[in-house]
Design goal:
mainly alpha, 9 helices
């Protein structure tokens, strides 16, 4: 889509994030959530019918308003329509998180594990964090902790090597 559309989507998200970050009452959040989803739906209506951006943005809106179950089919649709690149990676992360939230953590692990070997970008730590949550939901806490420590280690001002070593030791990994 064009930059004007992208800017309006970003502005809608900024308004929602500001509201959601203010810890509103549950009734306020539900009402604002419905209004926000309607705003996203109106923007999506401007897209071509086969655009993967539409179901992706709708999935994000449902997810951010507490409805992981409604987000899952939209993320799947966006990916099936060919959503790729940065947004495609976001969709896989968010789909895995929603799958975990709806009791399908194993599918989340299957979705995110290949991302560990994919091209690196600023979402690497988010992949590891979400994958760690999925693993924990399956009772695989040591693997999850290893991922989180491995993601954290490069950001530490000290103890990077030690934390990376501890992360590998948790799973017996040489990587």
């Amino acid at each position: 889509m064009d930059q004007h559309w992208e800017d309006r989507v970003a502005a809608a998200w900024a308004r929602f994030e500001e509201f959601a970050g203010s810890a509103p009452a549950e009734d306020d959040f539900a009402a604002r959530g419905a209004g926000f989803r309607a705003e996203i739906d109106a923007l999506v209506a401007e897209l071509p019918d086969d655009s993967p951006l539409g179901p992706f943005e709708q999935g994000c809106a449902w997810d951010s308003t507490g409805h992981s179950d409604r987000a899952v089919p939209r993320y799947r649709e966006a990916l099936a329509r060919g959503l790729s690149g940065y947004r495609g990676r976001r969709a896989r992360i968010q789909l895995a998180s929603s799958l975990r939230n709806t009791g399908h953590a194993r599918e989340g692990v299957e979705l995110l594990t290949p991302e560990l070997d994919g091209p690196s970008d600023e979402l690497d730590d988010a992949v590891r964090a979400c994958l760690a949550l999925c693993l924990s939901s399956l009772g695989r806490d040591r693997e999850g902790l290893s991922l989180v420590l491995g993601a954290l280690a490069p950001h530490l001002p000290r103890y990077r090597r030690s934390m990376a070593d501890y992360a590998r030791a948790l799973t017996g990994s040489a990587d």
